[in-house]
Design brief:
Elements lengths: L4 E5 L4 E3 L2 E4 L5 E7 L6 E8 L7 E4 L5 E3 L9 E3 L8 E2 L5 E4 L6 H7 L3 H9 L13 H4 L3 E5 L4 H18 L13 E2 L4 H9 L3
Antiparallel strand pairs: 1-11, 2-10, 3-6, 4-5, 5-12, 6-9, 7-8, 7-10
Length: 201
């Protein structure tokens, strides 16, 4: 690993932070889904409270990390964009708040697109049937990630932003295809992020 970078557990820079909301039959809820391979989120439309069997939903906040527990090893994990602030997901999707003294949401979004990050999730999945295996919130907190090694918050933010600029300048970042009839938010390709991290390790 290059000088200036260190490995830490995700739980060192984030905490489980779930906003549960009891479903009311009189309300309607904007809902979102999470794409595989760290590809972002998509709009699932409005869910009337009267037509769902869910007793509770989770509210999203921009800048949080959200993960689907079921088949998490496929990489359905990302950072919530501002477009999906206050959207709802089922209780299958725990949320995590980042400590931005140490990591920026933009940089965590890149980490979510890293294949070795999904592999670490696969290693922590539990269950007897492959397609029904889940990763718990506590397990995600143990996943190692690479961060700029700096003792100063301003240096950390600068280093994180510099890494983002490195990707944009040296590699082509294309949005993921729009899903038919849905609004989706894409980020840099998995290949792009892989190249960035291979340059660091």
């Amino acid at each position: 690993m290059r000088d200036g970078w260190r490995s830490v557990a995700f739980g060192d820079v984030a905490r489980v932070d779930i906003e549960r909301e009891r479903v009311s039959p009189e309300k309607e809820y904007p809902t979102a889904g999470v794409l595989n391979a760290g590809q972002g989120m998509f709009d699932r439309g409005i869910l009337p409270g009267r037509v769902t069997n869910y007793s509770f939903l989770h509210r999203l906040r921009a800048g949080q990390v959200v993960m689907r527990k079921l088949t998490a090893w496929e990489g359905p994990v990302t950072v919530v964009p501002s477009e999906f602030d206050r959207f709802c997901v089922s209780t299958e999707f725990p949320t995590f708040t980042l400590n931005q003294e140490y990591i920026l949401p933009e940089f965590m979004r890149l980490i979510c697109q890293r294949p070795s990050f999904w592999l670490a999730l696969k290693e922590r999945s539990t269950g007897t049937v492959q397609r029904r295996k889940r990763v718990s919130p506590s397990a995600l907190l143990t996943v190692p990630i690479l961060l700029p090694h700096s003792i100063n918050r301003d240096e950390l933010l600068t280093s994180s932003r510099r890494s983002m600029l490195y990707v944009k300048r040296h590699y082509r970042c294309m949005p993921w295809p729009q899903l038919p009839g849905r609004r989706s938010v894409g980020h840099c390709s998995v290949t792009t992020v892989g190249k960035l991290y291979r340059s660091l390790e």
